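All the exercises in this workshop are built on plain-text protein records. A record pairs a protein's sequence with a compact description of its fold. The structure tokens are whole numbers drawn from a learned vocabulary of backbone shapes. Once this layout is familiar, the rest of the handout is easier to follow. An example says more than a description, so a record of this kind follows.
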Amino acid sequence: MAGPSCTSSANPVAEGSTACSALPPGGGPVWLFDLDNTLHNASAHIFPHINRAMTAYLMTHLGLDEPAANQLRMDYWKRYGATLLGLMRHHQIDPRHFLDATHQFPELHRMVVFDRALGQMLRHLPGRKIVFSNGPQAYAQAVLRVMGVHPHFDAVWGVEQMRFHPKPLSRGFRHLLHAQRVHPARCILVEDSAENLRTAKRLGMTTVWISPSLRRPAWVDHQLRSVLQLARHGVRSHASR
């Protein structure tokens, strides 16, 4: 841990904890795992479902036709890293209402595509593990239960716990570091988004990019094609080097 006076909080949304970024890093690694397209393949079924739901939401609440709603959804995603942020900034959309309306999955167990070796990999990976997702917490928890890996995680952070400051905004990262009482040099962020990893690197975290890309950004410490390669790749946090 970061020091004797800096123990981890059992509550991922605990407030009023002491920030530890100024204390010397120590202890084991803290793994921060993105969820969608990192721990499971969201592009197959889940992302198309969410995209349709978001477009329908914009049509209903902003009075747009389908092409305009779809274009606005994409524009905000490209500009801010999350459609939600654009809607909050420009349309005063209630984020909780938006997230609840766009993350309904009656058949979630049929939609989650994942490798069943994931649980074994997580079991053998030393250190604390936290899910750090731009999606709502209830959705992230539901996906983890479908995959049967929820017991391996100490906390599940959704965008609500970031106070609706999604990645790549640094404020969401800082909320997590503050509440979990952890030094960034102990953290290893595992992500499919290079932009989110850029923020993590600026804060002093170790970065792991899950991507088949042939071009690796300078802020990426490790690049893997699959999260399953973590255990045998020897990834370590900056604090343990």
In short: Residues 1-24 have pLDDT under 50 and may be disordered.
